[in-house]
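User: Show me a protein chain along with its predicted structure.
Assistant: Here is one chain, sequence first, then structure tokens.
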Amino acid sequence: MLRNVMTVGFWTLMSRVLGMLREVMLYALIGAGPVLDAFIAAFRLPNMFRRFTAEGAFNAAFVPMFSKRVEADDNPIGFANQAMGSLGFVLLILTALAMIFMPLFIWATASGFSDDPRFDLSVDYARVMFPYILFISLAALISGALNSIGKFAVAAAAPVLLNIIIIAALGTSWMIGGSAITFLIWSVPAAGILQLGLVWHHARQNGLNLTLARPRFSPEMKHLLIVATPAALANGVVQINLLVGQLVSSQQVGAISWLYGADRLYQLPLGVVGIAVGIVLLPELSRHLKSGDEGAAKEALSNGAFFTAALSFPATVALFVIPLPLAAALYGYGQNTIADVQAIALATAIYALGLPAFMLQKLQQPLFFAREDTKTPFRWAVVSMVINAIVAIGLWPALGWLSPAIATVISSWAMVGLLHISSRAFGDVARVKSETISKIGRVAIASIAMGVVLGVAQFSAGGYFTHGVTQFIWALILVPLGATAYIMFARLCGAFHVSEIRRAMRRK
């Protein structure tokens, strides 16, 4: 399992690193303000619906069902073709409706833009970028099929294309003196087409001759729909949480940009670790449960829990202790002001407190999805949504634009607690091994010790690094310092040894 997690994690890391370069260019060329606010609100629409359809509904339901058909040799290709045809049909209708009613969509998701130049900008940008959902959702479904047969590399590498295309577009606009935002919005659908082409070609090379079959309401699709609907609603709840935050922050110019910048920072470890573990764990759990091997399922869960903790805990501490150098190193250039960087750093420190919760959800949800139980995560996601809305709106008068970040953290931890309670019904297979829990405790101690080292270093020398370039140098010093300290303390605590990681990497 660890080898597959590392494969997905590596390509996700490449995507996130390039994504950070993309954000650096965005903030340098455009800057936090009305234009970037409008772009973020517009780009969030296809991303939101993508998680509703492909990554949310279809993959949560499709991957376990497809994996079981592969295990039983029960016409998996025919099932996948039907799923692709049905998804494509739904997406075409959705895209057409979005083009017509885009002003309504923008008003519903960013009401603070009303009677503001940002409203018309968002509508125009969204109409160009929304077709991205068609290509990326089909690509996500094909990636799910590849993951189910153990082919993780290309599916994980495909998202890198989005960042490469956007970086190339922004770089071109800078070199020729063109409009950065114009190049930016047209690069999004172009990237979607390339991602779809890449995974489709790779799938055919691996014997998955997937095509867009004529949509039919067959018994298989009926069952898929029954399982997928709660998953879609559950992921929809997560997106509603984001929209609540956007609605609140849209009341202040620049706030959407600040929260987005912080979101990109904490999404780096979340994408590399949490999402990678979730992608690998779901088909693996499905196969083990289908074959009745609960021991192997528990081993996979325990390995996933340790790997998640070993990387999420130090990332959490680092983002909380040194958010300003990290934010300044990435965003302290061009059109951004010192106030923008400070705002992003403050939001990053808040989001950091929720990072373990975000990752734990990626570990917990496959326990339910592998059993085709999508209703329980949906039920608790609704509760989480209510908590998020109450906290975000309730704290707005006192804390302003920071209230969505605080609400996200609180509601995420509530979701983790509720999923944990429900997972007890699965018995011993849903419990992490005691020796793994002991190691996770040692990881926590090592992470705290690392935080002390970073805090002392920041207090002692941070005053010498005050501008974007020097802060970048300071971040380059702090990051390896923190990593070295963490590894040293982890070895002293007996949390892990390099030899253990090497042995795990050699296992299939």
